[in-house]
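Q: Protein A?
A:
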Amino acid sequence: MAKDCARVSRDRIRGCWAVPKGLRGGCVTRTGCQRPGTCRSVNCLAILVFLLVVFNSGGGVASARVLVLGSISLDPVGVVRVSQPFVDYLAEKLSSYGIKRGEVAVADSVAGMASLMREKKVDLLIDSSVTALLVNERAGSKFLLRRWKDGRDAYRSVVVVRQDSRFNFLSDLVGETVALEESFSTSGFMLPVLGMASSGLRLVPLDGLAQVPPPDAVGYVMGYDSETQMTWVERNQVAAAGLAENDFKQLAKSALVPLRVVYTSPIVPYDVVVYGKHLDHGLVSRIRAILLSAHDTREGANTLDGFDQTTMFDEIPAELLRNVTTFGPELTRLLEGGAE
């Protein structure tokens, strides 16, 4: 690039957009920088004005002309495969707002996603409700809609033990090990942790099943999937497991030994949509309208079904939203204390 050019670009835009220093003389070109002489084409001026408007104003989306959907997962390849058609559909519907394409950004933690949101590298996040709450608190993003998944609009978590165990209450788990799923899972981590914390229990992360928890606390290990958690309980490798109620009901049908529930959490929305605070109001309103009506057309319904069996989007019921937001202070304290 010529020395008298100042680059104006974004990581996800192919090619090199550049403008002359001080906006003096010459044309803006897509692959070069400043063309000597006076700009002879009206198109050059139009491009320059467009760049100034988009880049100097922030553009209203994470990357100019690109809508970025975020996800928190340890399987980025799988997430992109499932999510890309959905964000492509949404981007196409937003073409009148200058959106040309959609992309998927995957973080491996709540903190990582919150950072992407703060840096305007992610525009939308669709995730479990308590996970989304944590991102909102750290990044300033806001709730938008609820997602129905596989025909379900809400869910809750349970903590389960072997039927023949001595454990009847959460308080009985002091000095024992509990299997949780992963730190960004609402049903497999956050709701069970909140239940135990509200019972006055102290939780301590363990390095593995072989580590003995402190006698005055509940130790926890990550199983990363419900089937593994259940297997550990069945084999007496852990005292209990925290997981989604629906997962427990399904896995209990083929359990090696009878299991029972010692704790059931409040009901929360299945998944929610949140948006970055950098998005302008008009764009957010249009996204809301597109999502609310997507299930009404064959194209939209097919796209939703391919997006991890999404059924529809609707408004978040006030009662369920209150259930989620009341968790905020306690959950933040727990995570900052090392649970994350």
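Q: Protein B?
A:
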Amino acid sequence: MGPDSNTARYRIALYGAVQGVGFRPFVFRLATELGLSGWVRNTSTGLFIEIEGAAEELTAFLERLEREKPRPAVVLAREISRLAPAGLRNFEILSSDGEEARTAAVLPDLATCRACLSELFDPKDRRYRYPFINCTLCGPRYTIVREIPYDRPNTTMRDFPLCPDCAREYNEPADRRFHAQPVACPACGPQVGVSIEEAARALEAGLIVALKGIGGFQLLVDALNEEAVVRLRQRKQREEKPFALLMRDLETVRRYCLVSPEEEAAFHATLRRHGVCFHHFATLSAAVAAGLEIARPEGVLVLLGAQGMDNGTRIVFELLNPGKHPAAAEIAFPGRVASPTA
């Protein structure tokens, strides 16, 4: 029996930063909730949807697709065409298609979400203190991608097969890690090379710590230690330009800086590749400079900030690059803490 006269089918193409933001799981859940059939898939040019069902539900789907899309997504263009109904019976996420020209955008790495932070510090959670925690809403994106479409086999995570627990989360539509490509845990994911506690002790002792982190290699030093900050300036040959800082949370920022409402909102933003500029007034090393950029730390750095450095992080955060050369960024997965003798 063919589709009735009230049935329609649309093909929707979305272009922009629509991969690595949980768009496919979102579309899957929305279509299932509305009782619609069809499919969604990533391609090397964007995200494509074919959706079929009653006209009223399709109208609701199109409206909510725009209104409720994942917050980090940036849709630059949308194309919708009407097709003849095909009698589709369910909705599914299809394998990605990488045959077309590679024009899809990949988002920067996303700030750790509140749900992951809650798990990170929950002793009962299986990802307790696991620095590579992530979900469809947060975690590494640009840092780990090697090809598009954005799928696990096209990232550096392809070398880390999922354990049964992570596989269950990845395949469960109701789970927030449904189709989260970097999903990992202590049983199956990457590990740090040196203990976080050792790195924190090295910072407190005035040493420079080299971190293989999200976005490339970084050098860390205690921002309250004048001698250590001066030593970093000398080794970087960076005499005057302000350093960027990492601080664990806004409470810590307020201890050292003046914070406007706009800066507070930017500090808590999910999508950010750079920090927020503040003017500091208290106890930081003069060698840091008066105007500075502060970022909330990610993953391993979150844990570094929780290791008792005066109950809050204030770490100079500097890219590992000589002079005006680009930052070193050839990494398999962020998080390796080098020996604290940089």
